[in-house]
Specification:
One of its GO terms (molecular function) is taurine dioxygenase activity. It contains 7 helices and 20 strands. The radius of gyration is 18 Å and the shape is globular.
């Protein structure tokens, strides 16, 4: 069912019962009024994932729209930044002169929160399709707000006030390539609350992921591993997951404070190129709480 926004000429089509929406009637390359931007932000907070179809975006367009949502980070993996626009991180399996031009190649990229390993983790990301394979390479998202709200009370009590240990090294060992010495020094293990309060909406969400959450402080490893596995299994139920099949011209904006994601592998004979910006939270709401 498509809903008409009275504030601006938008059609909003929810994707699932709990999160995600397709937004029609807007070109992100166009100059927007403040009222239009505020309405998009409102829907982003409400639906957590916004899909804009049939976009024809230059790099400047991608950066310009993203900047309206917050300050942009220059990603620590500088080897995969766009040469002329470092605000853009390239996700790709393309090689030029024998070197990859982007991150994460064509294999499985397991469930993770972007930058959960940083003191000021990203609030959101905008991912735009530039070149996609004919099949595979789909991105899955998990609604961690609903997963927390429906979590059994006993398990809620177990993790209340607990901190998770986050490791970017663990993620790289599983799905990516190792960081250099400087990057490693900036991405040491860090703790984050297992239940995060959203800095805008105030809703609580599970803040953990199989790719980077390697333990719980104050709990023995074997017990911690068992609790985390129970939480991972709970979050990945079909009721909480949306599978996105990419089309050219898709621009997908997700809320990194309350959704985690993964990418399925695809055939390496096909090239895939995605442009991603990383949107930072306001400084006073930077540290997860």
């Amino acid at each position: 069912m498509s809903l008409k926004s009275h504030e601006i000429n938008l059609d909003i089509t929810p994707i699932t019962e709990t999160f995600g929406a397709i937004i029609s009637g807007v070109k992100l390359s166009n100059q927007m009024s403040q009222d239009e931007l505020n309405q998009i932000k409102s829907y982003w907070n409400r639906y957590q994932i916004l899909l804009f179809r049939d976009q024809d975006l230059s790099k400047e367009d991608i950066i310009g729209f993203s900047r309206e949502l917050g300050d942009l980070e220059i990603h620590i993996r500088n080897e995969w930044l766009n040469d002329s626009h470092p605000e853009i991180l390239q996700i790709s399996n393309i090689n030029v002169d024998g070197k990859p031009i982007g991150a994460l190649a064509d294999g499985e990229v397991g469930w993770h929160y972007d930058q959960i390993y940083l003191k000021r983790p990203a609030l959101g990301s905008l991912l735009c399709s530039v070149k996609i394979p004919p099949e595979g390479g789909c991105t899955y998202f998990a609604d961690m707000t609903t997963a927390y709200e429906r979590l059994p009370l006993e398990l809620k009590a177990t993790i209340d006030g607990r901190l998770g240990i986050q490791s970017y090294e663990n993620f790289n060992n599983l799905y990516s390539t190792k960081t250099d010495e400087n990057q490693t020094s900036l991405t040491q293990k860090i703790t984050q609350p297992l239940v995060r309060t959203h800095p805008v909406t105030g809703r609580r969400a599970l803040y953990l992921c199989p790719g980077m959450t390697v333990g719980i402080t104050g709990i023995p490893d074997d017990e911690s591993d068992a609790i985390l596995q129970q939480l991972f299994d709970w979050c990945l139920q079909d009721d909480f997951v949306y599978k996105h099949n990419w089309r050219l011209g898709d621009a997908l904006l997700w809320d990194n404070a309350c959704t985690m994601h993964r990418r399925e592998p695809f055939d390496s004979v096909h090239e895939r190129l995605m442009f991603r910006t990383t949107i930072l939270p306001q400084a006073e709401r930077a540290v997860p709480f």
